[in-house]
Amino acid sequence: MRDRKDLAMRNQRSFSIEFKREVVEELKSHGFEISMSRKGNPYDNATMESFFKTLKYEEVYLCKYKTLADAMNRFPYFIEEVYNIKRLHSALGYRSPDEFEELLVMKQEKENSRQTLLTLSVQP
To answer: Are 9 and 33 in contact (CB under 8 A)?
Structure first.
């Protein structure tokens, strides 16, 4: 399971206030970050809305599932093999998320090694 500080709960405004209060209290007690759309702000959940649009157009509408279980079994494949590895994302410079992450790690390692060299050269 992911580190709790990386988890977030997203929901729609249609839930009742009492339900939201109970859910928020429970999630906060477990260290979750709470993110709910503010009235009149369509950008709060833009990243997830974009992902679900992609999922619908590039997976759901193209496949003929026999059951809900068939669809649910296929989604991890789409996310891990298509969305993260093959699909190019304009926000990532037309790279896949995996490629972008790999380049980011390489850049960070290069900067860390450069910082180490600078530190070593300054020591007496």
So the answer is: yes
